[in-house]
């Protein structure tokens, strides 16, 4: 038997991080944890170190490092403690690492994810914001380094499973007509529009089918998540925005589909549990047990489909416009959305103001080409400044 693959889990304390560790723990002969990172929940991170015994652990700052070192010592562990973004990039690119789970939320994950890409790792991409904000440069880095980029987002993982093994000649050349990106519609699919002014962060985070971190839960409620996923799909599968159609499918059993020119539509189905795409990407091209229960189609009973309502979900329209504009537009959209979601979670703005803030911010700046990472961060910073000003004018 070959030796276990060494895995770095960036964002280990989050929803995806924990699911990843659950799958890894089922296969100690195949996988071994090399490094774990956390940000605010350091007690949980220490408990994960006790369980998974990584060689390295990354914390946000010096105070966190002191606490972590004391905790590790008390537990009789000798893991090396690294700090901040530099530490994250180091454990992502370490020569002894085979695969990196990129599961930090938001723009904070860009540099560490890129470090893994540039080191030519197998990169399991959950952190969609990293790809959305730096698409062209990110994919160029993948090509240059020969990194293996595998999608964790359930929709993109499904699409990947429904495409031929080598789709790099282009979707048209492999006979694909459209990608059908499924969306649950989130908790507000049927809420009367007038009531959306009053919905709370708790309601937005109560997703009907998936259990996820708070930021992506709000994105799912607004369908900005689907918008970011549309942009993500364009980069991962070399598709144009008009080739990606969003289909609301409230059961979340079909995770996405590929429509071929001969009329075949291939779908990937399963229970809504992220351990399936995680196990798929970890072991690809093999298959391993993920701990997910078999799909009970009789219990599911029926599968419904409907077109998304862009009046109800303006974020979807904004994301499609950004996908079509390209260049700095998705970067600005993503940054404005991060500020808007954080403000909504802090109750500084109402739910419908998420879309209003984003629309105002992205319409204020001309779209510019992003030819280097500095330009990406400049666009990100500019959008955050504009969003901050918007908040000062309209927020509570
Ligand atoms: P989460 O909030 O549960 O976890 C986020 C992780 O990132 C935590 O470990 C946290 O410590 C870390 N983190 C947060 N801010 C950080 C910072 N500034 N620097 C370093 N680390 C930081 O989020 P999640 O639901 O696990 O989502 C993670 C990523 O995966 C997101 O990009 C999300 O869009 C994507 N994703 C999640 C799901 C899901 O089901 N949860 C599905 C598809 C894609
Ligand atoms: Mg998804």
TrEMBL record:
Gene Ontology process terms (BP): isopentenyl diphosphate biosynthetic process, methylerythritol 4-phosphate pathway involved in terpenoid biosynthetic process
Domain spans labelled 1-deoxy-D-xylulose 5-phosphate reductoisomerase N-terminal: 7-135
Pfam families reported in the protein's UniProt record: DXP_redisom_C, DXP_reductoisom, DXPR_C
Catalytic activity: 2-C-methyl-D-erythritol 4-phosphate + NADP(+) = 1-deoxy-D-xylulose 5-phosphate + NADPH + H(+)
EC number(s) reported in the record: 1.1.1.267
Every 1-deoxy-D-xylulose 5-phosphate reductoisomerase C-terminal domain range: 149-237
Pathway: Isoprenoid biosynthesis; isopentenyl diphosphate biosynthesis via DXP pathway; isopentenyl diphosphate from 1-deoxy-D-xylulose 5-phosphate: step 1/6
Presence of keyword NADP: yes
Amino-acid positions noted as binding NADPH in the UniProt annotation, renumbered to this chain: 13-16, 127, 129, 213
An annotated Gene Ontology molecular function: isomerase activity
EC top class named in words: oxidoreductase
UniProt KW keywords: Isomerase, Isoprene biosynthesis, Magnesium, Manganese, Metal-binding, NADP, Oxidoreductase
Reported cofactor(s): Mg(2+); Mn(2+)
Every DXP reductoisomerase C-terminal domain range: 269-385
Record carries keyword Manganese: yes
Binding site for Mn(2+): 153, 155, 229
Binding site for 1-deoxy-D-xylulose 5-phosphate: 128, 154-155, 184, 207, 220, 225-226, 229
Role played: Catalyzes the NADPH-dependent rearrangement and reduction of 1-deoxy-D-xylulose-5-phosphate (DXP) to 2-C-methyl-D-erythritol 4-phosphate (MEP).
Family in the record: Belongs to the DXR family.
Protein name from the UniProt record: 1-deoxy-D-xylulose 5-phosphate reductoisomerase
Gene symbol of the encoding locus: dxr
